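Something for you to look into today, if you have time. Could you write out one complete protein record for me, on any chain you like? Leave the record below and I will have a look.
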Amino acid sequence: MGERKVLNKYYPPDFDPTKVPRRKMPKDRQYKVRLMAPFNMRCIHCGDYIYKGKKFDAQKETVIGEDYLGLNIFRFYIRCPRCATAITFKTDPKNTDYVCEVGATRNFENWRVTDDTGEDEVAQEVEDEQNPMAALERRTEESKREIDILDALEELKDANEAKFNIDIDKVIAAKEDVKRMLIAKRDSKREAQDDAAVEAAFGAAGAAKVIRRIESSDEGEDVETDASVARRKAKRPRKEGLPSRPKTEGLLGVKSLKRDQLIRKKSEMGIAPTRTALAGAAASAAVAKPAAAVAAAAAPSSSDEESAVGGAPSLGLGLNYSSSSSDE
């Protein structure tokens, strides 16, 4: 059992290695390996991003018929972690990099662009040395391209300056003008709507209503409008009438009547009236006399107006009795 851990095995003196049988393996044999994504890529089927350094269980094979300076080129097969689409890429010994083949697209990397441009410049210099006429044509095209680019830049600068050199006062004034125009248009629209509503309500003649005061004669018709009627009514003098009667006038007449009747009954029975009754009768007479004077001054001369004045019998009776009691 001790010989199984040794590094070298025992070979007898008559050992012939050519007689050992070997298995025949295909040249494109695939091996299972564990690797990490060598660059950022995106699946063309589902659009999932696969970032550099993500681990995969891959299949490795040797590319038949391709090598670089005797170095073999290997191809790797992985699957998208989202949709399981097959993605292949292979080694590039010339540029010490990897090349994506099928199933994905490599993301943009700035350092690769700069490296490519450097190599192109070196190749272009070598070509210019070999063919001077081609170099002259290329320089002419480059100069034309630069002139066109400068013209475009100047146009962009002028456009930007025109945008930035804006007078704020002019902009505000233009906005105010637009606002005033909108307000005027709105007001005119409202006036038109109001006129249409008035015409629909009062007819084609508008709001001027015609009033006929006098019957038509041979000479013509006397016609006036609401405005003339209003002016005429304002100029007409107010018709004189009775002044407004105070609210306590009827109450005073009733109280004085009752007081006079009481004094008359007492006098008929031979009982002298008290000082309080006499004082009340005198006060009622004093209040009633000015009211009677005002009524007499404002009374009209016609019989109809006298009948109208006579509609307050309580006031007259109160005046008569109060005067009689004062005389007594």
